Amino acid sequence: MQAPLPRPVGPGARLAVIAPSGSFDAETFDEGLAWVRTRYEVTLRPDIYTRSGYFAGDDARRLAELTDAIADPSIDAIVCARGGYGATRLLPVLSLGPISMANKTLVGFSDITALHAAWARAGVRSLHAPMIAALARADEGLRALWISALEEPEQSSTWELTRLDRGQVGSASGPVRGGNLAVLTALVGTPYFPPLDGAILFLEDVGERPYRIDRMLVTLRQAGVFSKLVGIVLGAFTESEPGKDGVTIEDVFADHFGDALYPVLSSFPAGHVDHNEPICLGAPARIEGTQFSF
């Protein structure tokens, strides 16, 4: 089921910037933060710059930062600093009730897929989109898309993509969900996996060789995930060069999705790429032939 429109955001809205996952480069973060502050009021905790190994502080710090942002009635949306790793560690103690009641857009991607799953379970939309660190180097076109996705969640767009299945089913409709393949696969078998019945699943990843992508897709298939879907949209799979065996990522996708009984599209411009276009997870989406709209 598609989620309702989130709490409105406009120029001057108050955004909470949080770091629920990995630590980040402070200089790049501050550059991105400066741009966000040209349009919005930004609040962040002084301890957001904390480093605890590969985390942006320990679990208690990161959880408190997240739950405070959810509970604060003055906050209109929540934007993550960067991904990395660490969000899955917060899921067992993250309550869905406050997320649902607050109905605030969460912005992020990569490791933030774990939190997108929580937002999906709470029935709230979220944005798979560039985070603060990435916004520092984003061009004006991508920044404009970021603002539009945050402020105009009801606006629909259409992309012309590449069809991977053999076209046994021409169209599909359902809420778009998903995110990073590795993080999503890590949630299989846990209570924190997102609801995917009747959904169009979006997937992307970085730094995974074709055989590892194959292994994760096999896991999702054997867990019954693919049988629940009405369609799949594949984003960028960067740094996924073939090994000595010569098997490419395209070979892996053809093997898994060539006989799909629903539409499968590839080449959506989102993921670990410079031009990472926002996707509104939980919004109603449609595949018609080679077109993807939401």
Topology:
Layout: E1 14-18, H1 26-36, E2 41-43, H2 59-71, E3 77-80, H3 96-102, E4 105-108, H4 113-121, E5 126-128, H5 132-135, H6 140-151, E6 158-160, E7 162-163, E8 171-180, H7 181-186, E9 200-206, H8 210-222, E10 231-238, H9 249-257, E11 264-266, E12 279-281, E13 284-288, E14 291-293
pLDDT below 50 for ≥5 consecutive residues: which ranges? Answer: none
**Number of helices, where a helix is a run of at least 4 consecutive DSSP H or I residues:** 9
User: Mind describing the biggest β-sheet?
Assistant: 8 strands, mixed
Overall geometry comes to globular
Instruction: Provide the CATH architecture of the largest domain.
Output: 3-Layer(aba) Sandwich
- Count of beta strands: 14
Q: Any idea what the CATH superfamily of the largest domain is called?
A: Murein tetrapeptidase LD-carboxypeptidase, N-terminal domain
Give the oligomeric state of the chains in this entry, treating copies of one chain as homo and distinct chains as hetero: single chain
H/E order of the elements?
A: EHEHEHEHEHHEEEHEHEHEEEE
Q: Biggest sheet: strands side by side, in what order?
A: 6-14-13-8-9-10-11-7
Q: Class of the largest domain in CATH?
A: Alpha Beta
Strand content: 15-25%
| CATH level-3 fold name of the largest domain | Rossmann fold
State the helicity in percent bands. Answer: 25-40%
Class from secondary-structure proportions: alpha/beta
Mean pLDDT: 97
Distance between the termini: 14 Å
